[in-house]
């Protein structure tokens, strides 16, 4: 049975974009789908040879300019990649996705010419990755006030503290550290971002144990023990790290929304196929009105979400996307997809709990979409501000 999501994409994107998307779908079906269950059952991260293949395909340089060895694509291409790979596994999609939207993107937006020339060619080829160090053990939604500090020491800076929930940490050559540099300044001008090599002797990393979602994605804790860096390591401007963070997360939230819809698309196809094959009381369960309600609700949400997301993606590429809209589409796509996955599992019954059926994987992974790149609860408060401008968070 053809993917339902393709029916909508064909009406929403160009023929060239659709060709690109379908090529990635074929790659995932041929190279990922037959092997994924083994990786999952063996608690194995995405193998290095698969990352190498994705690098050779140019997936780590989709939006990087051609002069740096990238594909010169736009954010729509990145969203389509996330949907093609995320249909099978969010862990697979987020690996090149975070490498682009959280790793290469801040460098593209705020890097100096020297920084871009030093790093973008290797990032675009997949030979290296950047990890964005934002969340901390004591700072999640309050990421604008990090506990990691960077203190001036002559011409250098000394960075101290810990970052966690850092996607792609295992494979990354550098970490972009969002650190407190001017705690007494006004909000938005207290922090600075630094590019720090992961092989610095004062930087240590460990994979976060016990995680039961995005299981094939690397998620690390990174500790900075008085790491010395120079002014040349600053990404963007001193005390304007919030600007780097905010603009980086705008695009990342669109990517999370796309992965949420990819999981929903998988669930819709799985349920509509199963509901026509599974018989109870002498008829396919899809004959029952309640099952039909669940399936049509999933289909409506998928079409609505895609239409909204791709409109915002176009605005992002045209540099007219506001932060509130990026937050709202991420909130709505992730929460609606999560709700639908619960109902999808219910109509399919006990088979939904089996890893080989696939629904339980997407059900777990959608939790990350609700709390990652800003938790939905925190983003709701942020997105409400333009509606009630006289009420602000202190």
Written description of the protein model:
The chain has eleven helices and ten strands. It is α+β, with helices and mostly antiparallel strands and 394 residues long. The chain folds into three domains: 4-128, Acyl-CoA dehydrogenase/oxidase, N-terminal domain (Butyryl-Coa Dehydrogenase, subunit A, domain 1), CATH 1.10.540.10; 131-239, Beta Barrel (Butyryl-CoA Dehydrogenase, subunit A, domain 2), CATH 2.40.110; 243-384, Butyryl-CoA Dehydrogenase, subunit A, domain 3, CATH 1.20.140.10. The protein has a four-stranded mixed beta sheet. It has a four-stranded antiparallel beta sheet with strand order 2-3-7-6, with helices on one face. A two-stranded antiparallel sheet has the order 9-10. The longest helix is centred in the middle third of the chain and has 37 residues, at 241-277. It is globular and about 80 Å long. The relative contact order is 0.11.
Number of discrete helical segments: 11
- How much of the polypeptide forms β-strand, as a percent range? 5-15%
Spatial ordering of strands, largest sheet: 1-4-5-8
What is the radius of gyration?
21 Å
Termini Cα gap: 52 Å
The CATH class of the largest domain is identified as Mainly Alpha
What would CATH call the architecture of the largest domain? Up-down Bundle
CATH third-level topology of the largest domain? Butyryl-CoA Dehydrogenase, subunit A, domain 3
Structurally, how many domains make up the residues? Answer: 3
Total beta strands: 10
Query: Main β-sheet, in a few words?
Result: 4 strands, mixed
**Fraction of residues in helices?**
40-55%
Helix- and strand-based class?
A: alpha+beta
What is the string of SSEs from the N terminus onward?
A: HHHHHHEEEEEEEEHEEHHHH
Tell me the overall shape: globular
Let me know the average pLDDT.
Answer: 94
CATH H-level superfamily of the largest domain: Butyryl-CoA Dehydrogenase, subunit A, domain 3
